[in-house]
Amino acid sequence: MTTKVGILVVHGIGEQRKFQTVEEIVRDMATALKADKNLTVRIIINEQNTGAYAASQQTWQADNTEPLIIEVEDQNKQVTELAFNEVWWADLGDPVSLQTQLSFWAWGLSLWSRKQYSDPNLGTSDRVRPPEDMKGNKPKMDFNGRLRFFWVSLVILLVLPLLSFLSVILRKVLSFDLRPDILVQYLGDVKLYQQGKREGLGPLIDLGEPPRISVRRRMVKGLVKMSLRNYDRWYVLSHSLGTLVAFNGLMETEEALPNYLNQELWDQWNYPNSGDELEPIIRKKASKPLTDEEEQKMRPPRPCWLNKDDIIARSELFENLQGVVTYGSPLSKFGVVWPAIVPVNKDNSVFNPKFEWLNVYDPTDPVAGRSALFNFKTVGDKQQPQEIAYKAEGIHLLSHIEYLNYKPTRTTPFVKQLAKWILEGESFKPGQPSLGWPQPSMISIYNNIRILIWLVVAVLISWLLGFFVRFALPDSIEKVIQEIPYLDLMNPFTYIGLGIILVLIVGLFMRGFELNTDSK
User: Model's pTM, two decimal places?
Assistant: First the structure.
C-alpha cells in the first residue's frame, strides 16, 4: 500500500522561475533521505512531451498532477510518495523602472514615520482579530519601534550602495557572492505586499486591486487544489515573505475564500467526485448570508455566480492538513506596521489534532524572527506555533536563504529533520544535539548585540565610502568641500550624519504626503 503525502511550497523573495524553488527543495530533501541507508529513494518528474516553439526543455505538468514526487521505500517495502506542488508568484511584482526605484527608496527611508495600518474596513473583518502576544497586547508603533525602523533605514542607506559595488568586484575577482540584493528583493516584495493599490500594470483579473490580492489568489487556489487531491495528509512549506502569503491563505474567512476561485475550480470544490454530470454534493452554506454592505466591502470582489451564503468551510479545506512550516519569516515584523494585512482568524478549531505549525528562524537572519504576535490555539488547546531556533548560516544575509540546504557535515541539518517529520507523519521532535543554538541565552546575547554589530558595519562601510569618494573627487572640488565647516570626507561619522539627515527629511516628507492623501 502506498501512502501519498502532499507538500505545497510557497517561495519567498527573489526572482524565482517557475518550479525553481520546488526543484531546489526536492534536491536537498531527497539527498537528506538518501543518507539513510535503510531507505530507497527515487525522484519522479511528471513532464509533458511538448513545449513551446523553440523551447530549450520539455514542459513540466502542474495543473492536473504534481510536477515532482519523491518516492521512498523502507525495508518493509512500505512506499510513501512525497508529492510536491508550488505556489509561484514571482511574476506578479512591479516592472523595474526609474519610477519604481525612486518609489522604493522613498518608501524604505520613511518606514519609521508611517502610520500603523490597523483597520482594513473589509466586509468580513469581524471574523478575524488583529495580531497580539500571549498576554493579549496588540502591536503598537511606539517610540522604540520607530527608532528601530529609523536605524534600519539608515543602515540600508549607508551599507547597500557600497555593498552592491563591492559584491561585483568580489564576484569577478574571488568568485564570492556577497548577495546584498537579498535585502533589496525582500524590501521590494514587502513594499509590493503592503501597497494599497498597484503602481504599474498588473493582472487584469485584479484590475484596481492591491498587488497582494493577486498573490493571495494563487495561494487560495493552491490550498483548494491540495484539499481536492485526497492526500493521506499534506503540508505547507513557506519561506520569507511567502510565509505571509501562506498565513493569509490559512487565516482567510470562509465567506471570502470562494472569491479567489474561478467558476471551474468552484465547481470542482462543490462536486469533487462528479463525471460529466454534476452530482448533488453541495458543500456547506453560511449560517448567515452576507449583507449588501459586507459584499460591497469584500476584497477581492465577489463573483456574480456566487450566492451570498456560499462559503468554503475551513474545516473541510484543512481536514488533512497536518503541518505548516514557516522559515525565515518576517510575520511579527510585518504585524507591527501592517497588522490589518495579517489578521488571525477567530476560529482555529478547524485544524485537526495532529496539526503543527513550526516557525524556524536564525537570529543572524535580519528578516526572520519568532512569531510572537501570531499565537493561537487549535484542538485540545494546542498552542501554535512551535518556535525552532536554527543556525542556518554564520554570515548575515546569507542565513536567510540557507534554511533547507542540506549540509552532510552537520549532525542535524534541518532539512533532514523536516523530511523525517513529513515522511513519518508524527509530532516534530528535533534531533539531538540541538539545531545549532545550544542555549536560549546565546540567542538573547546575540539579539542584544545585533544593533552594535550593524553599527560597526555602518562605520566601516562609511569609512570605505569616504576613501572612495576622496579618491574619486577632482582636486578642485575637494578643495571647495574642505572649506565647508564640519564636513570631513574622511570621517565615517560624516556620512552617518548625512544619512540621518536624509532619512529624517524623507520620512517627514512622506508622512506629510501620507496625511495629505488621507484627507482627500
Answer: 0.86
- What range does the domain containing 483 cover? 98-198+441-519
pLDDT-based confidence at residue 519 (cuts at 50, 70, 90) = very low
| Confidence category of residue 254, pLDDT binned at 50, 70, 90 | very high
Q: Is 250 helix (H, G, I), strand (E, B) or coil?
A: helix
Residues in the chain: 520
**Nearest to residue 30, comparing CAs of 422, 514, 431?**
422
* Residue 520 pLDDT grade (very low, low, confident, very high; cuts 50, 70, 90): very low
The 10 Å CB-count burial string (b at 16+, else e) for 491-513 is ebebbbeebbeebbebbeebeee
Q: Which of 224, 193, 223, 225 is nearest to 209 (CA)?
A: 193
Helix (H) or strand (E) holding 72: strand 68-73
Domain edge (last residue) among 437, 468, 490: 437
**Which own/partner contact pairs does 487-493 have at CB distance under 8 Å and 24+ positions apart?**
490/466, 491/466, 492/459, 492/460, 492/462, 492/463, 492/465, 492/466, 493/459, 493/462
Q: Are residues 432 and 308 in the same domain?
A: yes
- Residue 269 · residue 224 · CB < 8 Å: yes
What is the SS3 assignment for 224?
helix
- DSSP string covering 85-140: EEE--GGGSPPP-HHHHHHHHHHHTTGGGPPP------TTGGGEE--B-TT-PPP-
Cell 494599497, residue located: 196
More confident residue, 178 or 311: 311
Residue 383, φ and ψ in degrees, nearest 5: -80, 130
